Amino acid sequence: MKNIFLKTTGFIMTGLIIANLFIVISGIVISDEIDNFEKKTDNLLKINLTLEKKVANLGSLKFAQEQAKEFGFTNSTAPQYIDQLKYAYR
Amino acid sequence: MKIKLIFLLFIFFYLTIIVRLFFLQVIYSPSNKSAYLKTNKLYPIRGRIYDQSNQPLALNQNSYQLYIEPKKIGDKDKLLQLLSKSLEIEEASISAKLDMSKDWVAISGGLTQEQKDKIDKLNLKGVGFDYQTKRFYPEASLSAHILGFLGKDNQGEDIGYLGLEGFYNRDLRGLPGFIETERDIIGRPILIGVQQRVEAENGRDLTLTIDKNIQEISKKRLLEGLDKYKAKKGCVITVDPKTMAILSLVCLPDYDLEKYYLFDENFYKNLAISDLYEPGSVFKPLIVAAALEEKKIKPDDIYNETGQVTIGEYNIKTWNDKYEGRISMTRILEKSSNVGMVYIGEKLGNKKIYSYLEKFEFGQNTDIDLEGEASGYLKPANNWYPIDYATVTFGQGIAITPIQMIRAFASIINGGYLMKPYVVQKIVSENKVIEIKPKIKRRVVSKTTSDIIKKMLVSTVENAEAKWDRPKGFSIGGKTGTAQVPIKGIYDTSKTIASFIGFAPVENPKFLTFVVLYEPQTSEWGSETAAPLFFEIVKDLIVYYGILPSQ
């Protein structure tokens, strides 16, 4: 009887220790993942802001002016119809 | 015996643990809490600002503050040399900040991602970065006075100053959140511990009524105008006269929004809403509209313009002291006759003049949604002398802001409605869109009066004494103005404020533009400075809007 009790207790204790170890290790793994996700989210936010800046730069009038200058379109010309009305109706 | 010894050993260990826990949890509790409980503030992202076509005018960008932990650095001289090269700051400046007795020293803020990456590659010991965000303006200072700038309050927190950043600071800044977690010794969250997270609420985005293309046209032309007419400063405001939605607002000189701290405070002032001035002849159509509304005059009524008019001890004359004899009310506007306006003022009567000034809400804020507006001052009626009633008919002796002027003018050409000017048409948050509708403050004149004054203003442009290079075939209405500048109570004849206010197309005005030039040197007259500049802008706007000629 005493042997059965000791064996059962030993078995349960071993099981609990294993379960405990498993929970602790899983906790550490999940914590690491949370930490990684936090870093990745922060990083994504930074990348997002960088990309937003690049897109805005490409769509800006400043960029268009630089491009126009590069391609030689610096002198804007008003349409003829502003000064010569006959062209407005052609 | 052995069992007893082991038992006593266990008791001793347990007691040691209990005593240690008592010290940690009870006696040193508050200070030790921070060792495992990590609370981080979650900063909201400041709201973005877009123009009417959702083109960005103000965004956020990554920014870093470089710091040094002096006790962890290796070779100080080498560190200074490398940082100086990367940051393009003198070694002496960095050295002056580097206090070796401290644990942490901030060296330089506002570094870009590229600068940070470059320094990271150097692998310098004791050098670190704090993350921040800062404003980024894709169009640089194109809309400086509209946007305002982002500075710091006395606690080092971001705060918007002037313009939209100031007016909508509460909407733009958002609400900070926080995250509180129990962490282990290497900073990983402990899952069974305290976990509390309150998300930050990002700032609301603003969509403006501003059209950045019109803004660009206005700024380019104003720059050319200031240079050509050697004016000290100037403003161009373009609005939709039906709604008083501001389409563009440019005042020069302006300043670099990202480096606002390098400029004198005078550059921050938005002349269009903060600067009081005497409007001069652009004011005349308001008095004529009031007289038409009260049925005191008709456009074809005749006035006999024979010479100067005397009011008390003052003589009022026309700008060139020439008189045409019998002229119509329309002709009074065309030739901008001061004596003719005194006649119209007399027909209208002093009480009515004052009541219309109140109806146009001079002396009150327009409530435009930009920080920094000045209200002006309309002195009480019992302080007005006869000369005040005479001079106000041609826009002297009253101090108003350009935004008050354009709002009042819009009301006489839009069917008679005095509107509230506005810059923001939408406030967008994560789950809600607030649309801002045009707001009528009151009706000042009837549609009939509005139609009549529009025709008179077309005639004013077509038959003005100055001949302008204006787009042919397009119906444009408008009025010049040349106001003298009072200095210590005396008008300085050498200094004027030249202006032109006009609209097109007359049948259904698409835009109303007001040009003001302060102290032009090439000519003192609005007709020779502000008016040609106005027509240059109009030519661009006609092309931009694709407006067809009407004649």
Plain-language structure description:
The complex is a heterodimer of chains A (90) and B (551). Chain A is mostly helical and 90 residues long. Chain A has one domain (2-73). Helix content of chain A is 74%, strand content 0%. The radius of gyration of chain A is 36 Å and the shape is rod-shaped. Chain A starts with a helix and ends in a 20-residue tail after the last helix. The model of chain A has no long low-confidence stretch (mean pLDDT 84). With 551 residues, chain B is of the alpha+beta class. In chain B, 34% of the residues lie in helices and 25% in strands. Chain B contains 18 helices and 23 strands. In chain B, the strands form 7 sheets. In chain B, strands 2, 3, 4, 5, 10, 18 and 19 form a 7-stranded mixed sheet that branches. Chain B has a 5-stranded antiparallel sheet with strand order 12-11-23-22-21, sandwiched between helices. In chain B, strands 1-8-9 form a 3-stranded antiparallel sheet. In chain B, helix 9 packs antiparallel against helix 18 (530-545), helix 11 runs parallel beside helix 13 and helix 11 (284-293) crosses helix 17. The longest helix of chain B has 26 residues, at 2-27. In chain B, 43% of the residues are buried. The mean pLDDT of chain B is 89. Chains A and B meet through helix 1 of A and strand 3, strand 5, helix 9 and helix 18 of B.
Summarize the topology.
The complex is a heterodimer of chains A (90) and B (551).
Chain A: H1 2-58, H2 61-70
Chain B: H1 2-27, H2 29-36, E1 37-42, E2 49-50, E3 56-68, H3 76-87, H4 91-97, E4 105-111, H5 113-121, E5 127-136, H6 144-147, E6 149-152, E7 158-161, H7 163-167, H8 169-173, E8 177-182, E9 195-198, E10 205-208, H9 212-228, E11 233-240, E12 245-252, H10 271-274, H11 284-293, E13 302-305, E14 309-311, E15 314-316, E16 325-328, H12 329-334, H13 338-348, H14 350-359, H15 386-392, H16 402-413, E17 417-419, E18 424-428, E19 433-435, E20 440-443, H17 447-462, E21 477-487, E22 490-504, E23 511-518, H18 530-545
Parallel strand pairs in B: 2-10
Antiparallel strand pairs in B: 1-8, 2-3, 3-4, 3-5, 6-7, 8-9, 10-18, 11-12, 11-23, 13-16, 14-15, 17-20, 18-19, 21-22, 22-23
